[in-house]
């Protein structure tokens, strides 16, 4: 792989800058792809963006950027997208710095910025070499999410179309299902969730299989089906949506989509569980209602003092097998199970040896 250091002025960089839904983000006279398929969306906050412009106005050195040469002689950014877009947006008049837009500056101030020389390493080599380099140089920056790295490996027509649905603030997936998704669209977490749902967690295999499909319509249609099922089955209120951001929806949809539920009974059960102080993980309520697995609820455990009191009361004897054990060899158990109305209180605590407790829990 060949790597060369070049000096490129802001004037050259910002020439022909465009940011459009159809053509993506281009700069450097249209020869630089600012946002290749594996790059994240623009995530700089105002203070980060302003720091870039402040560096230019004071003539301080800006961190080195990295570009890669494509087969057709054009370039793509490997590292430096956020800085590049910040510079281009400012020169383009998209935001003000220090209460002034670029066009409000004096000519000598504009020239100082436009003549600023950026240090750019340009590399050429195979796709695998460029992607390996991309991962290496990003270690020191903001860490990439797993899905951002997957996007680098499986770039293609399918991914480009999928990102249109899932990878932007205000994208269709955000508007339709944002109340039920964890994470951020621009960090590719919504896309990751959708692929995980449709593939049963086999994200890489699914992306590899569909990499060159002309579109991601199947993924989008599946996602819509999941969200429509959630809303028609559970009739979520504004308040209850706060506990409905969970990762299990895709799995639950596949398993229970053909079951006819009594929505009123579900409403009553949700209300009961929300009010139950022993339920410490309210976001596990809906998976519990469907699967019956108490592990989703993280039922409140007995305190150490309650365990010691029960141990002393039993004289160290396991309530099931009748043998004596040290406290460290025993575990607290609900005498009346939680699902039968038993509470996590001292009077409902008994100590069992580990084997007896495991056998009871496994029933």
Question: What's the topology here?
Answer:
Elements: E1 2-9, H1 10-14, E2 18-20, E3 24-27, E4 32-33, H2 46-58, E5 65-69, E6 75-79, H3 81-91, H4 107-114, E7 117-124, H5 127-137, H6 146-153, H7 157-166, H8 172-177, H9 189-199, H10 203-210, H11 217-234, H12 249-256, H13 263-275, H14 285-291, H15 304-313, E8 330-334, E9 349-353, H16 354-361
Parallel strand pairs: 4-6, 5-7
Antiparallel strand pairs: 1-7, 2-3, 3-4, 5-6, 8-9
Helix pairs in contact: 2-3, 9-10, 9-11, 11-12
Overview of this structure, please?
With 363 residues, this protein is α+β, with helices and mostly antiparallel strands. It is 43% helix and 12% strand. The protein has 16 helices and 9 strands. The protein has helices spanning 10-14, 46-58, 81-91, 107-114, 127-137, 146-153, 157-166, 172-177, 189-199, 203-210, 217-234, 249-256, 263-275, 285-291, 304-313, 354-361; strands at 2-9, 18-20, 24-27, 32-33, 65-69, 75-79, 117-124, 330-334, 349-353. It has a 7-stranded mixed β-sheet. A two-stranded antiparallel ribbon has the order 8-9. A hairpin with a 3-residue loop joins strand 2 (18-20) and strand 3 (24-27). The mean pLDDT is 89.
């Amino acid at each position: 792989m060949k790597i060369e250091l070049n000096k490129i002025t802001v004037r050259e960089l910002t020439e022909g800058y465009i940011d459009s839904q159809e053509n993506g983000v281009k700069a450097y006279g249209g020869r630089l792809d600012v946002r290749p398929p594996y790059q994240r969306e623009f995530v700089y906050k105002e203070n980060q963006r302003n720091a870039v412009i402040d560096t230019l106005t004071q003539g301080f050195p800006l961190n080195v950027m990295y570009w890669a040469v494509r087969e057709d002689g054009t370039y793509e950014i490997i590292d430096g997208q956020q800085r590049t877009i910040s510079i281009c947006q400012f020169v383009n008049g998209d935001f003000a710095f220090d209460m002034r837009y670029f066009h409000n500056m004096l000519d000598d101030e504009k020239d100082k910025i436009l003549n600023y020389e950026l240090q750019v390493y340009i590399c050429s080599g195979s796709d695998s070499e460029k992607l390996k380099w991309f991962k290496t140089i990003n270690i020191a920056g903001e860490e990439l999410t797993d899905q951002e790295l997957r996007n680098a490996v499986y770039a293609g027509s399918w991914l480009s179309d999928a990102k249109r649905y899932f990878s932007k603030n205000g994208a269709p997936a955000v508007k339709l299902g944002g109340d039920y998704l964890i994470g951020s669209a621009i960090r590719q977490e919504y896309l990751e969730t959708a692929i995980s749902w449709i593939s049963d967690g086999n994200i890489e295999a699914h992306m590899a299989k569909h990499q060159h499909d002309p579109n991601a319509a199947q993924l989008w249609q599946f996602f819509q089906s999941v969200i429509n099922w959630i809303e028609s089955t559970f009739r979520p209120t504004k308040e209850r949506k706060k506990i409905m951001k969970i990762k299990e929806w895709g799995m639950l949809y596949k398993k229970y989509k053909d079951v006819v539920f009594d929505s009123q009974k579900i409403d009553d059960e949700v209300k009961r569980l929300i009010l139950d102080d022993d339920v410490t993980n309210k976001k596990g309520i809906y998976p519990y209602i469907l699967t019956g697995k108490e592990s989703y609820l993280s039922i409140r455990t007995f305190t150490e003092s309650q365990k010691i009191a029960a141990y002393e009361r039993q004289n160290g004897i396991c309530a099931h097998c009748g043998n004596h054990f040290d406290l460290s060899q025993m575990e607290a158990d609900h005498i009346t199970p939680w699902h039968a109305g038993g509470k996590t209180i001292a009077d409902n605590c008994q100590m069992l040896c580990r084997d007896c407790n495991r056998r009871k829990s496994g029933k």
